[in-house]
């Protein structure tokens, strides 16, 4: 069958044939950036991969353990909790999530061991940040139309300490939020873990007392 290219499942873009539907779909995505189910061509493999991992194909696979809102990705669920947006768990935020992860990650698979870390720094801008045109961030000099937007920026993770790192030590990427490292792994950009494996790991963190391993 390999010699004569007579497998049953034929690529919908080129004449190649494959022994299984999964093999054909993988070939179409990798080689042609094509989704056969949607009959859509994409400009890059990254784009078609994001499409295949989207709500269109995966639905809402992860539920918040507190408010039961559904999310397509572990990144979405983690952002929901880290940002304090869950109405049933207002006690959760970037700092408390980091504390939880550290208890489940004693060997530092993804969390940095910051012995002197006491929590996120808090900033508050005043009218003195007006530069004559905009409200300016004193830390990065980014400009905002109003003081409220500047304060949201100051107290976002942008100017906070890196709390996490990619478990692939050869990658060397650092992240300020758990959502950042989860998104990095879900994107499969460094090839350390597949999308489904990341979803399972995050489910373990949020729903059990199991230790975190990769």
Topology of helices and strands:
Elements: E1 9-10, E2 17-18, H1 21-32, E3 34-35, E4 40-41, H2 45-52, H3 55-58, E5 62-63, E6 70-71, H4 74-82, H5 94-104, E7 135-136, E8 143-144, H6 147-154, E9 164-165, E10 174-175, H7 178-186, H8 195-207
Antiparallel strand pairs: 1-2, 3-4, 5-6, 7-8, 9-10
Folded structure, characterized:
- The chain is an alpha+beta fold and 214 residues long.
- It is built from eight helices and ten strands.
- The protein has a domain of 44 residues.
- Helix content is 35%, strand content 9%.
- The strands form five sheets. A two-stranded antiparallel sheet has the order 1-2. A two-stranded antiparallel ribbon has the order 3-4.
- β7 and β8 form a beta hairpin.
- α4 packs antiparallel against α7.
- The longest helix is centred in the C-terminal third of the chain and has 13 residues.
- The mean pLDDT is 84.
